[in-house]
Amino acid sequence: MNIYKQNIHSITEYLKKGCKDTNQGAVGVEIEHFVCNKNGECMPYRNGVEYIMEKIAPHFNKHIYSEGFLIGLSCDDYHITLEPGAQIEISIMPSSDLAKIEGIYNNFLSIVNPVLEEKGYRLVCTGYLPTQKAEQISLIPKKRYEFMDMYFKSTGICGKNMMRGTASTQVSIDFTNEDDCIKKLKYANILSPILALICDNSPIFEGKPFIANTLRSYIWNNVDNERCGIVDCNFFEEYAEYIYNSPAILISENNDFSFTGSKKICDIYNDTILTEPEIEHLLSMFFPDVRLKQYLEIRPADSMPIKYVLAYSALIKGLFKNSNQIFNNISTEQIEDAKKQIILHGFYGDVYGIKAYKAAELIYETSYNNLSEKDRTYLSVLKEIIYGKKTLKETISFAEGRGIL
User: Fold this and answer.
1) Out of 213, 289, 310, 394, which could bridge 192 as a Cys pair, Cβ 3.0 to 4.6 Å?
2) What does pTM read for this prediction?
3) How far is residue 361 CA from its own chain's centroid?
């Protein structure tokens, strides 16, 4: 077997390791937060978020450093990492029990809030910077982000905005086998424009009101077409081919990063067998709407206050509980058109032959019917959004609900 085929095989086998024997309905939840002062200005890493990380570090058994700076913390239930603009992300371990996820998140708040209050800071859950422009935000001291920032200047107009200015909610689901994975991947791609609308929480762009919808969809559409958007594949091997034949931007070598720019991964590793850590790194450097690792990561939702995150997690759980799908035979072109319609017209855009608000109602009803009575109780706040045809960005203000105190 030649090196090319061996590396495609290695990536494929890595993805296959994600297959679970049974579908327990577990969801993994990641929430990114801005750390803001009372005026809504985001705090930089140095003399700001760095202090927060160091003060809460004793509560965690694993500390992660980059160039001597503390940028990550871990315990049994969750991990804390930093996004490029010093957004704090909590990644909660997968669970089928939404109350457990809520409890873990509240434990995180009980640790971080006293330190935030000491400095006059707050965590803010919104999809884009509350008050500032991206150019006012400095990157954290991590070479990976420095190289990404440099690369995205040549691939689109919104790389700077994505790295420094966005915050998301990501929900991950498992798959039982390759067929199950691909079916869920395709379905999540179809749903993603409507999910972005339901979770639209970005009222401000570059310090001014954003008059369109789903700002993060607009931003991701203008970052890098080769690693963002929709990946349409029918097998693990096709996803592996997509990864392996795309630019790497940077690679990890001897605990350091090297900038490789637009050089394709297949050319960088043309005489080297990929290791598992290298595969993990390469997969993490791609940002499609739905990302395949050893689980499926559904990425279109904005950062939101926890009650909306729990509702969204319940929504996802119900949508993927069985094999029934609302929409079938939807092409990539139709998904892209749905994104554009929603950006321009919101709930009144045309999506897959119906209005977006009808599609959102179908999504809600399908999920509701698939959930237990206990899980259904979490959905009520999304019902208000969907049937009221008003997104979060229209219904809550920075002062009233975006900050978590």
Assistant:
1) 289
2) 0.95
3) 23
